[in-house]
Amino acid sequence: MAFVNFKWREQLSKPSFDIFSRSLAAIFGGYLVAATACGLLALALPLPVAESVLTAMMLSFALYAIAALWAFSVKRSRQAWRDLLCISTIFYLLILLLG
Amino acid sequence: MKETFFRTMTWLHTWVGLLVCWVLLLVFFAGTLSYYRYEISLWTQPELHKEVFQDYEKGQLKAQLTQAQAYLAQHASDAKDWRINFPTERKPYLSYGWQTQPEPGQRRGEFIEHIVKTDGKGVITDTRDSRGGHFFYRLHFDLHYMPANIARWIVGFCTMFMLLALISGIVIHKRIFKDLFSFRRNKGSRSWLDAHNVSSVLALPYHLMITYTGLITLMLIYMPWGVLTAYDGDARAFRAELKPSRVQVKPTDIPAEMIQIDTLLPKVKGFWGDVPLKQVVISNLNDKNSRVSFYQNTQQSVTDKRTPLIFSGTDGKLLSDTPVAPSATHVTHDTLMSLHTARFAKPVLRAFFFICGIMGCAMIATGTLLWAIKIRQKQQKKIKNGVKATLGLRLVEGLNLTFIAGLPLATCSFFYANRILEKTMENRAQWEINSFFIALTLVALLACFNRGQTSWRLVLRLSAAGLIAIPVLNALTSNSHLISNINEQQWALVGFDLTCMLFGGALWFASNKLRDSTNLAKVKQPTTQGSQLSQTVKEGV
Asked: Strand pairing partners for B294?
């Protein structure tokens, strides 16, 4: 019954879990932010279509880097997830609105 | 808060760096070599070392085109397309190439290239089957033995990590300017830290540039989302708008007589003046929809306005739009791309890019060596008492030996295989590449048993000896040698031999240094710098 005895709450508050969670937030959450930002900028930039797509793609990696660093700079990993998911949801809604 | 941020960044730098450093080292190493992609290819084709090299002559164009068309019509009448390549600075020979019709299910046919001798009559058809410098070029983003799209995702992932490692490295590096001038040699791990700092900081703009532009070269794979929203995912439409000349016209299957290509030259001159040409491509041969595209040699311009002039192959009418001035976005994109490939770089600047690339390799290598040394120091007491080093440490040390010492040896064995393998061997080009990976695997096997000084010295000395002997190999297996190449001013070939010797010498020097610093892990009293380092490692572990 090791599974039942496994102390979930204790495990989740361990620093190693925090770091693991932050890493996942940085990799996947960060990519989500960059991808949605890329899609949004491609629609929203006041340039000819091909050019705004190009600009959006070129900028997206900088945004990815910022998002990933953000995930490591906030106090808790939960906050990192919250921030990144919120931002990408907003971006996604804006894409739906514009597209 | 500020202190925690600093510590998180230190942690990030250590782990992000360590996790991907070996793939990154491979990518940096192969990428650095591909700055001399054409020179390496030239060296790996010794058949071309005599009576082939020539300069671009605009007076000869007409005759060369006429002759090319006649030759191709005779030898490659059923090809998919023809390519006539004029001599350029880095590919100094005239050649007729073609692509055979692709086999069913394949996207491309086989590329065949026949090289014209300087007398204009003889044609060399039996060059050895070798990937040459293109192997290293492909290796640095397609890796090998795996599908290209998977490899590109792996490389992209590692590149993104590299970007994060660089940024966090800058954050934790409080004294960036001072470290430029501090190198303390023979101080055990502190020297490694200094070496890491110097190689990182000196070439920092280069590292940032090459990492970011690397992501940009493959951004259509990594970030296609803009195309998804703005073009409903129609990547073809996007590319067509980006580069209209790239769109291929389908053949109509109505046969038609081709014009003489050289009659188009006056029209080309009317648009471009005396700009040297690089290539003429003829597609859809003998078809109503045949096309003749002229490409200019853009030489040293940073942005590469590659818009070709496209003519109809049946009546010689200009079909491409007259080139319009590219927009700022296009110029930015084009500049970032050419910064990555350095296609504009003249010899001195190219050498500078190469040195920066080597420093990138040094940065990665010293970083991971530093980690291993510090961890070994921590475990020293236990190891003395007969406890085995931890699996992590053994793994890192093994991978260090494999990649840091193994890559030069693998490259060396690639060059030797190029010259020693039988010319008619089946799958010859693939076996050259296999020999690269066989050497790497052998070093990895060695690393399974012994990761100490002896192994390092053995591998370093092997590759040093091999590289120093490269001019001898070249002299024995080709019809020219170092001295004759100097006399004939074949600087690409001379440079190849000399660079190999230089690196061989450096590796020999390194293997000798190993003996002096047998106790790499010599611990000195930690000073400020030392405490920064031990903090780095403490955070990391």
From this structure: B280, B309
| Selection from B319, B259, B308 nearest residue B281 by Cα | B308
> Tokens 């000399």, residue?
B498
Average of pLDDT values for B520-531?
Answer: 40
What residues of A are in contact with residue B12 (Cβ under 8 Å)? 69, 72
**Higher per-residue pLDDT: B73 or B243:** B73
Note the pLDDT of residue B240. 79
Rounded Cα gap, residues B25 and B417, in angstroms: 23
Six token digits for residue B125: 């058809």
Kindly state whether residue A73 falls inside one of the protein's structural domains. yes
Chain B interface includes A41 (CB < 8 A) = yes
CA distance A25 to chain B (A): 13
Q: How many domains does chain A have?
A: 1
- B219: chain A residues, CB-CB within 8 Å: 57-58, 60-61
pLDDT at B178: 61
Q: What is the ipTM of this complex?
A: 0.87
DSSP 3-state of B283: strand
B189-202 and B347-384 helices, crossing angle to 10°: 150
Specify the 3-state DSSP secondary structure of A91: helix
Residue B250: DSSP 8-state? P
pLDDT (0 to 100) of residue B529 = 41
| Residue A81 domain flag | yes
Distance, CA of A68 to CA of A56 (rounded, Å): 18
Binned at pLDDT 50, 70 and 90, residue B59 comes out as: confident
* pLDDT at position B246: 60
Residue B182's beta-bridge partner residues? Answer: none
> Does the distance separating the beta carbons of A64 and B12 come in below 8 Å?
no
Report phi then psi at B413, rounded to 5: -70, -30
Residue A17 lies in a domain: no
* Domain locations in chain B as residue ranges: 2-44+136-217+344-540
How many CA within 13 A on the CB side of residue B327? 13
Between the alpha carbon of residue B336 and those of residues B90, B208, B339, B431, B459, the distances in Å are 22, 12, 5, 35, 38
How far CA B132 is from CA of B172, B296, B408, B484, in Å, comes to 41, 25, 16, 22
- Domain of residue A52 covers 22-98
Amino acid at A50: A
Q: What is the pLDDT of residues A21-72, one digit of tens each?
A: 888 999 999 999 999 999 999 999 999 888 999 999 999 999 999 999 999 8
pLDDT of residue B145: 92
Q: For residue B177, is pLDDT > 90?
A: no
Nearest to A88 by CA among A7, A2, A25, A5: A25
Judge whether B31 and B357 are in contact, CB under 8 Å.
Answer: yes
Task: Quote the Cα angle for B365-B367-B372, to 5°.
Answer: 95
Output the average pLDDT for chain A. 87
| Percent of chain A surpassing pLDDT 90 | 63
